[in-house]
Amino acid sequence: MHDQFATYLEDPFLKLLYTDLSKAGPLKAILMDVTHVCNLRCKGCYFFEDKMDQYQSPSDEAEFDGFIAREKARGSNFVTVVGGEPSLQLDRVKKIYDAFWMTVVTNGINKIPYEGFENMPIGLSVWGDHKTDTYLRGNNKIAVFAKALANYKNDRRAIWYYTTTPRNAHEIESVTEQCVANGNYVTYNFYGDISGLGGHYDHRGGFELVRREINKMIRRYPGKILISSYISQVVSTGQLFDEEWGYNVCASITPDNELNKDRVLNGNPYNSHFRAYNPDLKTTRRCCVGNDRDCGNCYDVYAHISWIMINLKRHLRCKKDFTNWLTTMYLFYLGNRIVDFEKRVELLPEIHRRSSYWSEPDAYHLGNESAALEAILDEAL
Ligand code: SF4
Ligand code: SF4
């Protein structure tokens, strides 16, 4: 294994990525709901489908501070902050921001101010173009996407987490254009139809057209898209080499939760530090998306990225696979600002150029970014 590593890392670009990751060190991640309250009721929201709002957040500030102190002492260094709607609990989001690497996912209706949150990665959720998004998220009344665009105009902290649906692939281009024109970054999620809406929203239609559109967007905006074609392929097909996605291989489980007592013994790797905390910050759930979610329709991108990350050995058989593993890791660290975002975001075009699963392998050409890349390599190595 050591020999293969050394050979692959003779490539200066891979060496640069690997050096950055090594400097940052391993992640000890948790996920927490910072509040049980939300100002929307999106169709297919796992949080309310699974009635997680029954675990109410502590009203006592000392209790919240105690949680932060315990997680610090336990060694946690990265927190995914969800909810509920985190922007309704900004004072607590600020405490998390000051204590850990973190990312927050918000519906964007309330702007998270710049002051005090200058380097915070902000994931803005959008589920389709204005009509679709207003239907799915705004109960056909609130123009959520339009409000969030206005709130985060030219805000470089903002990364759109665009949840795509199989038969709405034709909306991807327009939504992506609007997000990029707004001065933001984009990544993609895949909608699992847990509310049984069917039709355009039924994941059983398969994501091939969606993948093709995402690849098109990566080619068009290589400096703006924070998911690789490799990650998109693994998430949407549920296939990692000969392994199929599902509960038995999912690494994003809470290991000490009673519901997972058999899973941790089945021999497949998992993140031993990870916990997904309910809003009460005392109880945990089976995984990031609940206790009862059907793993068969789970397209959670973070969970799939963990699956890739924890399977380094499978990615060592050739340089191409190793590159896919390393770029997956790097995109996670970059998007979550664990490595210096402003300095390293210029690497995105080259990361995409090297990621596999292009339907037309030669269609991606590196343009005049190559000079900038050489300058970065010269400085770093
Ligand atoms: S904004 Fe998020 S937490 Fe609130 S209902 Fe929608 S998906 Fe659920
Ligand atoms: S629902 Fe998804 S994240 Fe949760 S255990 Fe199943 S596969 Fe893993």
Question: Please, could you describe this protein's structure?
Answer:
With 381 residues, the protein is of the alpha/beta class. It has a single domain (2-380), classed as TIM Barrel (Alpha-Beta Barrel). The chain is built from 15 helices and 9 strands. Helix 2 (12-24) packs across helix 12 (319-335), helix 4 runs parallel beside helix 5 (90-99) and helix 9 (208-220) runs antiparallel to helix 10 (229-237). Strands 6-5-4-3-2-1-9 form a 7-stranded parallel β-sheet. Strands 7-8 form a two-stranded antiparallel ribbon. The protein starts with a helix and ends with a helix. Strand 7 (239-240) and strand 8 form a beta hairpin. Bound molecules: iron/sulfur cluster (2 copies). One iron/sulfur cluster (SF4) is lined by residues 247, 250, 252-253, 286-289, 293, 295, 298, 300, 303. One iron/sulfur cluster binds next to helix 3.
Uncertain segments of ≥5 residues (pLDDT<50)?
A: 361-368
Rounded to the nearest angstrom, the distance between the terminal CA atoms is 23 Å
The tally of helices reads 15
Instruction: State the CATH architecture.
Output: Alpha-Beta Barrel
Strand content is 5-15%
- State the strand order across the main sheet: 6-5-4-3-2-1-9
Number of distinct beta strands: 9
What would you report as the Rg, rounded to the nearest angstrom? 20 Å
**Residue share in helices?**
25-40%
Q: What is the string of helix and strand elements?
A: HHEHHEHEEHHEHEHHEEEHHHHH
What can be said about the biggest beta sheet? 7 strands, parallel
What is the CATH third-level topology name? TIM Barrel
Give the oligomeric state of the chains in this entry, treating copies of one chain as homo and distinct chains as hetero: single chain
Rounded mean pLDDT is 91
Tally of individual domains: 1
The CATH class name reads Alpha Beta
Bound molecules: iron/sulfur cluster
